[in-house]
Amino acid sequence: MKKLMSLLLVALMVLSLAAFASAEEEGTWKVAILTGTVSQGEEEFRAAEQAVETWGADHIITDTYPDNFASEMETTISKLVAFASDPDVKAIVMCQAVPGATAGFERIRGELGRDDILLIAGTPQEDPAVISAAADIVLYADEIGQGDSIMEQCAEWGIDVFIHYSFPRHMAMELIAGRHTLLQENAEALGIEFVDVTAPDPTAEAGVSASQQFILEDVPRQMETYAGQKVAFFTTNCGMQPALQTAVLDQPNAYYPLPCCPSPYHGFPSTLGLELEVGGDDVAALQAIAAALEEHDAVGRFSTWPSPVAMTIIEIGVEYAVDYINGDITSRNDADALLAKFEEKAPGAVLDNYTNAEGTTLENYYTILLGQVNFADYLPGGVNGPDAAAAEEAPAEEAPAEDAAAEEAPAEEAPAEDAAAEEAPAEDAAAEETTEA
Asked: What is the pTM of this model?
């Protein structure tokens, strides 16, 4: 009986491999994308939609994990397994890689025997060593590096107090905890008072609305406590960003150095009442945000990154997967190919391998760091302002008239010069010398 079962398993594996090979040969490959919903992560959701538009519904399939992913892990796992059960699916891009990602990937490799499938995890919420062992590539904003860049921005603003909102689930994550430690160390070095405030977890029973309400009520309390001082506010959670931005917006001494997932689209459109195409023209979006902030006298109190890191992770993850499926990339983890794609999509991006507290470098775990935005640069008169492009185009518009005048002048004088040249060769030679000089 055992022998018969073994033969059946071997036969099933052979048939599966044949189906996988057939799909690749016929060009019926698919890349599956799993993201959060609009309420938990609109940028990732829109990036998945854009991937469908770019590559077509025949090649891109999408789904979302539950809003309460912490308590509905099995649902997340089942969705990953369902993706891999389709023999045409050659790669899965998951962003954010919430709890359940590792277990789902392990079942795909183990129970389904899909060693052929490429697994890419973006913005993971599980231990780096664990998720990097399960995935082929892991991509994450450099949260620890933000401990430097955020405090550099605070020092430039002359911040007196730094308020850090989070909750136990997030603080148990290695990179978030690492950023927190570096923020504390830098704050101490700069003489900035560092204050930890525990907020409700948005995945708890009360949900996102309770967390947002807490932020809206706590910021004014903190401003009263630290009256007359410059106070910077930061939260580790996506769902809290609009509430924090709203609470800071009209407080003259309140500052907002960075969203947790840095981007022009993270919270800003809803906070400022802007209709921005998420993942559209980033410069135009920053110009619109700067103009709206100016109405609240808040241009010098807000910052972000110039490109949406979460959307970039999905876009590059899908492109990498397609190149891998088509044989243009032959390694599951090609660092040079990844870097080239980031340099194209987000010029100036710094891509590094993550090294954990024990000193172990994870070769397939990459962190991404971009520079801080000064919104004043995106106002009229700024280096990236709406009139900057017009100023660059102005000479190009005048050039035809100048060229035309330049072409006409010699044309009118030419006959006289030619006539003089025929009568006086010596004068012609002198004229040529004068022109060259």
From this structure: 0.75
